Amino acid sequence: MPSIVAETSSTGPGSPAGAGRTRRERGSVTAETAVALPALVVVLAASLWAVAVVGAQLQCVDAARAGARAAARGESAGAVREAVARSAPANARVDVTSDAEVARVQVAVRVQPRWGLVSPAVEVSASAVSALEPGVEP
């Protein structure tokens, strides 16, 4: 039966850090980290920015739905705007219209990143339409 012999090198996983490397190669990990770290920070910032934009979009959707339901029940314009304001992001623009059959609510907001002017502002909006309840006049 043949025997299996394992050879180990001084640069394998179990070897001490830096063993078998020249002095010039030892600094390459630091240089690679110095290059990769800023790229990682940019990716993280972009991810956080995307999450903030999606969060604002979801708030606009919730606010538009709440406003459309309130308008469909025949509540006053002030009550509809109050229902929207409870769910909408800060500084949101609200447009409420209704005709003989439906009430429409549109909520829009411009989302600016908190960490400066490097990332662009994004406009998000949502609209909701609800049929008016029987007996409600526009």
Automatic annotation (TrEMBL):
Region feature Disordered, mapped onto this chain: 1-26
Biased composition (Low complexity): 8-20
Spans traversing the lipid bilayer: 35-56
Signal peptide stretch: none
InterPro entries per the UniProt record, alphabetical: Rv3655c/TadE (IPR049790), TadE-like_dom (IPR012495)
Keywords from the UniProt entry: Membrane, Transmembrane, Transmembrane helix
Chain ranges of the TadE-like domain: 27-69
Record flagged with keyword Glycoprotein: no
The keyword Membrane appears for this protein: yes
Stated name of the protein: TadE-like domain-containing protein
Biological classification of the source: Bacteria, Bacillati, Actinomycetota, Actinomycetes, Streptosporangiales
